[in-house]
Amino acid sequence: MDFSPQSRIFFCPALKVVSKMLGLNEHLAGVTLLAFGNGSPDLIGTFSNLDGAGPMFPDLFGAGVYVVLLVAGLIFVFYPFEIQWHNVLRDACFLSFGIIYVDYCCVSDGVVTRTESVLIMSVYILYLMVIFIELFLLKQTVKLLQSKLKDRKYATAANLAKLEQLRAEAGIEIIDRTSRLSIDVNRTRTMSFDAILNKPNKDLMKQFFESLNPIQKEEWLESGIAGKLYIAITAPVLFVLQVFIPVVDYEKERHGWSKLLNSIQIPWVPMILIYTLSDNLFILGIPLYCYTLLITVPITIYMLYTTRTDIPPNYHHITALYGVVCSILIIYYSASESVEILRVIGIVTNRSNSFLGCTLQAWGNSIGDLVSTIALARHGYPRMGYAACFGGPFFNSISSFGGVFIYETFRSETPIFVPQGSLGENCVVFQFIATISVLIWSTLTNFSARRSIGIFNFILYAIFLVFVFLGELEIIETFAPENEEEIIDE
Question: N or C: which end of the chain has fewer CB within 10 A?
Answer without folding.
Answer: C
